[in-house]
């Protein structure tokens, strides 16, 4: 049976961003590619047609992501609970979800970009092709300098969930080092509008995370209704002016 194509792919997992929706299933969205903010239904937020369907490479990336999302959302549901059970399965599923989120975020603003390339086949023949964002994303998975959380032993780091008021975006997985040259020591990720997952060393706070999420996101910024500015936005060096209120600050635990 042929694999079903996913025409409307969400850059930010639909089941994840639903936590930011109101009773009408609407969220605030800023499309940074157009410098425009607007309300949107969760079903239509951060959508791009065939975003994870490779043009050249023969791999069903959307199917792989669907499995990671399914297990990841189960882990997020546990972490959002009052007394999260951090068993090995939950930790592994959450780390895989964060790695997927990082991958998507790196190419969130590249979904319409085509890159000319020459394909060399095993029989020695060549073919002119165009890699799309999904092809490039897959190729990047073999690059040694790309951060892979599943290789860092996060399962043995300290995990905690902190309260606050948070937006999210394609750059919402925040990576911290004590110095520019030191190893990664902390990972932060908003589980919901009121909960932040913190893995590793506590932050030397307070740290304003919402402006940081805005500055790290390449294409999509998303918040509860009333938290992001609407209409045309002036091109700015810092996207923090897109936020209408909370900085999402957290302090050292």
Properties at a glance:
253 residues; 4-stranded antiparallel beta sheet; 15 strands; globular; disordered N terminus
Describe the fold and architecture:
The protein is an alpha+beta fold and 253 residues long. It has five helices and 15 strands. The protein has helices at residues 14-17, 61-80, 88-106, 133-140, 209-216; strands at residues 8-10, 26-31, 36-41, 47-49, 115-120, 126-131, 159-163, 168-169, 174-177, 184-192, 195-200, 207-208, 220-223, 231-232, 249-250. A five-stranded antiparallel beta sheet has the order 8-13-2-3-14, with helices on one face. A hairpin with a 6-residue loop joins strand 9 (174-177) and strand 10 (184-192). Helix 2 packs across helix 3.
Describe the protein's topology.
Layout: E1 8-10, H1 14-17, E2 26-31, E3 36-41, E4 47-49, H2 61-80, H3 88-106, E5 115-120, E6 126-131, H4 133-140, E7 159-163, E8 168-169, E9 174-177, E10 184-192, E11 195-200, E12 207-208, H5 209-216, E13 220-223, E14 231-232, E15 249-250
Antiparallel strand pairs: 1-4, 2-3, 2-13, 3-14, 5-6, 7-11, 8-13, 9-10, 10-11, 12-15
Helix pairs in contact: 2-3
How is this structure best summarized?
This protein is an alpha+beta fold. 23% of the residues lie in helices and 26% in strands. Strand 2 and strand 3 form a beta hairpin.
| Helix-strand topology string | EHEEEHHEEHEEEEEEHEEE
C-alpha geometry:
globular
Residues in β-strands, percent? 25-35%
**Biggest sheet overview:** 5 strands, antiparallel
The share of residues in helices is: 10-25%
Record field, number of beta strands: 15
Find the structural class using helix and strand composition: alpha+beta
Going across the major beta sheet, what is the strand order? 8-13-2-3-14
Which value, in Å, is the CA radius of gyration? 19 Å
Flag low-confidence runs. 1-5
- Mean of pLDDT: 88
Number of helices: 5
- Kindly report how far apart the N and C termini lie: 52 Å
């Amino acid at each position: 049976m042929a694999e079903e194509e996913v025409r409307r792919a969400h850059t930010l997992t639909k089941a994840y961003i639903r936590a930011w929706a109101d009773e009408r299933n609407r969220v605030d969205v800023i499309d940074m590619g157009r410098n425009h903010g607007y309300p949107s239904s969760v079903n239509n937020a951060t959508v791009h047609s065939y975003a994870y369907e490779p043009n050249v490479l023969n791999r069903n990336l959307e199917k792989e992501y669907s499995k990671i999302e399914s297990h990841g959302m189960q882990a997020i549901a546990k972490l959002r609970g009052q007394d999260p059970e951090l068993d090995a399965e939950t930790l592994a599923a959450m780390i895989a979800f964060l790695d997927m989120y990082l991958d998507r975020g790196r190419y969130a603003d590249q979904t319409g970009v085509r890159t000319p390339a020459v394909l060399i086949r095993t029989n020695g023949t060549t073919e002119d092709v165009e890699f799309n964002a999904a092809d490039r994303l897959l190729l990047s998975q073999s690059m040694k300098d790309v951060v892979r959380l599943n290789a860092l032993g996060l399962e043995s780091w300290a995990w905690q969930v902190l309260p606050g008021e948070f937006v999210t975006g394609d750059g919402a997985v925040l990576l911290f080092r004590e110095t520019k040259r030191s190893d990664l020591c902390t990972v932060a990720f908003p589980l919901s509008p009121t909960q932040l997952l913190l893995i590793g060393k506590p932050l030397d706070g307070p740290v304003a995370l919402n402006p940081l999420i805005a500055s790290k996101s390449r294409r999509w910024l998303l918040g509860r209704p009333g938290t992001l500015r609407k209409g045309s936005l002036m091109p700015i060096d810092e996207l923090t002016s897109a936020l209408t209120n909370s900085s999402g600050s957290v302090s050292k635990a």
